[in-house]
Predict the 3D structure of the following.
Amino acid sequence: MPGNNFGVLFVVTAFGESHGPALGCIIDGCPSGIPLSIEDIRRELQRRRPGGGGAATSRAEADEPELLSGVFEGRTLGTPIAIIVRNTNQRSADYDGLKDIYRPGHADWTWEAKYGIRDHRGGGRSSGRETVSRVAAGAVAKQFLAGYGVTIRAWTSAIGGVQVIGSEDPAFSLDEAESNPLRVPHQESAEKIMSFIDKLRSQGDSVGGVVSCSVIGLPAGLGEPVFGKLDAQIASAMLSLGAAKGVEFGAGFEAARGTGSNQNDCPVPTDKPRLSSTVPSLRYQTNNAGGMLGGISTGMPLEFKVAFKPVPSISKPQQTTDRYGAFREVRIQGRHDVCIVPRAVPVVEAMTALVLADLLLLRRCDSM
Amino acid sequence: MPGNNFGVLFVVTAFGESHGPALGCIIDGCPSGIPLSIEDIRRELQRRRPGGGGAATSRAEADEPELLSGVFEGRTLGTPIAIIVRNTNQRSADYDGLKDIYRPGHADWTWEAKYGIRDHRGGGRSSGRETVSRVAAGAVAKQFLAGYGVTIRAWTSAIGGVQVIGSEDPAFSLDEAESNPLRVPHQESAEKIMSFIDKLRSQGDSVGGVVSCSVIGLPAGLGEPVFGKLDAQIASAMLSLGAAKGVEFGAGFEAARGTGSNQNDCPVPTDKPRLSSTVPSLRYQTNNAGGMLGGISTGMPLEFKVAFKPVPSISKPQQTTDRYGAFREVRIQGRHDVCIVPRAVPVVEAMTALVLADLLLLRRCDSM
Amino acid sequence: MPGNNFGVLFVVTAFGESHGPALGCIIDGCPSGIPLSIEDIRRELQRRRPGGGGAATSRAEADEPELLSGVFEGRTLGTPIAIIVRNTNQRSADYDGLKDIYRPGHADWTWEAKYGIRDHRGGGRSSGRETVSRVAAGAVAKQFLAGYGVTIRAWTSAIGGVQVIGSEDPAFSLDEAESNPLRVPHQESAEKIMSFIDKLRSQGDSVGGVVSCSVIGLPAGLGEPVFGKLDAQIASAMLSLGAAKGVEFGAGFEAARGTGSNQNDCPVPTDKPRLSSTVPSLRYQTNNAGGMLGGISTGMPLEFKVAFKPVPSISKPQQTTDRYGAFREVRIQGRHDVCIVPRAVPVVEAMTALVLADLLLLRRCDSM
Amino acid sequence: MPGNNFGVLFVVTAFGESHGPALGCIIDGCPSGIPLSIEDIRRELQRRRPGGGGAATSRAEADEPELLSGVFEGRTLGTPIAIIVRNTNQRSADYDGLKDIYRPGHADWTWEAKYGIRDHRGGGRSSGRETVSRVAAGAVAKQFLAGYGVTIRAWTSAIGGVQVIGSEDPAFSLDEAESNPLRVPHQESAEKIMSFIDKLRSQGDSVGGVVSCSVIGLPAGLGEPVFGKLDAQIASAMLSLGAAKGVEFGAGFEAARGTGSNQNDCPVPTDKPRLSSTVPSLRYQTNNAGGMLGGISTGMPLEFKVAFKPVPSISKPQQTTDRYGAFREVRIQGRHDVCIVPRAVPVVEAMTALVLADLLLLRRCDSM
């Protein structure tokens, strides 16, 4: 409840500092009987690790997960699932010079303003490394969702001002996304962005970008109005990510510029069986709403985008202030990403999986 | 927890259907000793009512609140504060023809898909009328925030494609915003938008827009990483609003197009007293982050924008489907807003107040 | 969360001071489709009202409930159910003399120590009158439980030192319990207790007692180990009642005096169908455990007892202290029960219903 | 929320099966700045280990805790504190013969009825071994409480029918309790009980008992009426323990036999400074209520007792049923306590510490 706890029924509690002994999580409320192996978790953690494309940090953590409870003979028990990942490649000394300095764009000072104390090494718990716990938990949620036929796919849809060409182009391919280090689902866009990133690296600068996410196979009826709507929960999950600065669903900010007559999604009969004697099945002609109406899933694809600001650690000189209240110039050395957007992709998927797992369980309690 | 409950320590539980006997809320966890009168609540409810500008619905509810508990001799008791608002001007018969029809862009079908049943009159609980409860609760939160010197101001910053001229223009005035029915803080922009809305009304159409919000006086240290970050909670609060489709903080989606060197907010010494022997006071040279770093408030203004889609109820003919799975053409009659954005302004403020009241209480537990 | 909120999925939020405008509750998470009328709530509230037996207070409240939301055409909507009960028969002036006095055995001072302020009239929110909200909510829970075939029966099993003769006696009859004002299921015991109470009344004294409760029809599998066990939740529910001082399950404190060989409940085969291919049905030869093992229901009757201390309001003179820190003698005048145990019976049932409704919903999420 | 999570602000999430790789917990919400070392945790875990007195199991676990996060340079960071304890001395083979048998008095079948699956080795998560997580978390809570001057002391007050001589006897000494394996604070009683236990061991039987607990130094004002009262929360914490069958506060069940005139605790002036200009300090002449009134602490010692049933694992032959629904005779072999009451003492203290830490934090939010 005080901040490291996510979900109502499928609940993740996360822990860990960047340079402490380990990170990890407990998943409580995962139903019994779900197939789960350490390999399912390892696979997702590998996707989160720095890629070979050079966009990312060179801190080379093994990120080897250990499963401490909740699984017996390959199936979940219904008891809490604890997962830990040891930190093995910390170079704490890299941070000695930053102990008394508040890095621009980082949360160094706000954590001290809040807690009066912080583990300065690698940003402590404000480090992007905390997403290890999210991805591990998300891997469990994905196993649960697999049983419902739900598939989550995220990708890089923009980096800096460069927009990735979208699904309207035949060369767009989500399968492609996972095979290039930028997670850009369009070869030509990927190449263009890669040279843009190379230029920024040589300048000691960094860049932001956008992750798009699409979920298919979701049944209608997910979401808990009025405060726990599907979009409210996804928004919360996304803005809880380190560098996230915005989220939009379906047409998003573009919808604010539209009219009712061009934005409304109109129901269309389907030949699927009725939901009940009083409720028909239907689908929507368009999906401007991004898969929900009134905060409840429609059965259409859930679609949203998340904006990430640039990595604040840059080697260009910056003005800042130190613990003693004095001006300082700082150049951030060490191993940092030029752009974390590609690595945010599996994290966006993980958080989405956690929201959906929770809502699928809550859905079981909707009616008598 | 199942959806009508918001907050951890300053907790609102809301209830009410559009055409049921009443709407309202219970606020639990409001500290004792806060001055609170029925007038404080009435004032905010009045701001939410349809304005005279013609942008809004003509359902003329008195929206007279009644305070049932939690206040004694003008001060809060620390016990739950219950507030109800009777529905008095329902015209349920307006909805008889819509009983078996799923309106485009509305949540009619998704509620039935979820619950198997709905109160079709006026949209039931999916009606914008449910925000009465939010505004009443927000009025209480504002009283609490007043004791901390926190001020929340929201306004209409765009309607349709028309962007309101911003604070860089000398004619921009937040005080102006409350005096015109569109809540546009710029006279010239307001006039332009009003004629745009008139045109849409004559066409039987509706339009979306953007609400901006700014909070000043917020201390540093608010927010509960990693899942309950300040931005995560505001995002959740905003996307829980009926027609909201996106939210962004500070530079928002623009930040995704920037670089570290132009987006980082650099700390600057201040002459305010130190927070403690080990932590100095400081401020930030810029506020691209919109008032938080690492999900914790910086003490700079909290700034964000919320995109609202157009009102789905339009009198233009639309295709849809009925309960029997058949195609139907529908024209929505009755009393509807062309643009709800101006009326969303006090609701955005109310939800912001609720988030901040909760975080201010949680902040009391940060350190020994 | 801060104290007036009960349950995880079937969640009650209660409000109201003894002499404020109204008391009531919101039930959030009640599934849709359950038959519910105002009569279902009124019936339970009537059981809570003072009986004619003279054991109880003579404050004659109508206790007329009003249903403000969540029900449409006789069925629950899945939306929050708000119920209010107006206070109409307050005699606030009765309490004027007690404004600055801390009554012995009451919570007058502890509420002031906590909140710095209190509504002294009738004890404010520490009054037994707050159980109106519990009983109203419990009535809704009972409707839900009826759909599962679960029946809850509580009765007075002791008053003062007088033990009610138990079910081993042929004259014991739970149906009898509801027809006498003491809710004693044994005619002879009832008469004996009634004369005991008459004597205490004439002495201006009061007396405690024990409520027993038995639940039949409960399926196996309810309870959320390790912290939300069935007994833990019932215990919490019972000790949240005003004068409750203890609770015991099955053999209870007697079990602490026993040995494994005489306390263990041994499983016995049944001819009911298997729960699954791997799990048989069974029952237990004895029920010393009171219907649960490891905090999970066994399918045997859930059985527990709750001890209530004497009503603290007595007209005998007592020593106490006032707001100014001075010694005072006090005789509590006004309308008070000699023994609230009979009126606690429907409240015990209501709280039990709330726990079980919540656990039945949580049970839906146990396995894939 | 689904069962392995305890507290609102000082929140423990526990995990671990008896014979899985490890047990442990995450404590979220522990304020920053509290001195905490691995030694503080180890010390409490040692108290929970089997003593030398022979009353207890001979499974000899090292119970060596590892601190994975949340502490930096000897102080808590305000971030989640993760603690794990490896299982190293499992003898899983001991349980092979019990895989398909439901042991009398154990939760074997109820867990299968609930989850359809269980880790049968050592009882899985229904094992008393799960209290390792509670004790580790409680050790952290005790560090927090130490800063408030709160001291918790529990002891064995009865075993079987043998009542320990109480504090009215000059030979009663709580310091003695920790120095004998039965945790009996009275030498003569301890000897008597020890020979009683020896006799039961030779008969292959087990026995129950009572733990008493007393907390001193607690300020007035703790507890969250009406559902989160101090006694309600302690009751919940206690009944969440494996073999607990009852709890009573102060005079407890005896109070139910009393009258108002002999049970009421009367306020007495003190010479301590006033709490505020409007609220005096006071104390109570007696403490029949056990340290709370209206569910809020009075500042008098918090006093309660917990009844534990006998250990269900006995080597005497018992009738039971197997997975195939057939009658079976079973004699439980392996390493089992004759009486777990002495080992429950530190667990009772740990759970008490968790409740009080949570309530002390909630208390910070009571008034403006």
Remarks:
- The longest helix of chain C spans residues 341-363.
- Chain C touches chain A at residues 1, 8-9, 29, 31-34, 76, 78, 144, 147, 361-362, 364-368 (CB under 8 Å).
- Helices of chain C lie at 38-48, 108-115, 131-146, 174-179, 187-203, 230-239, 260-263, 341-363.
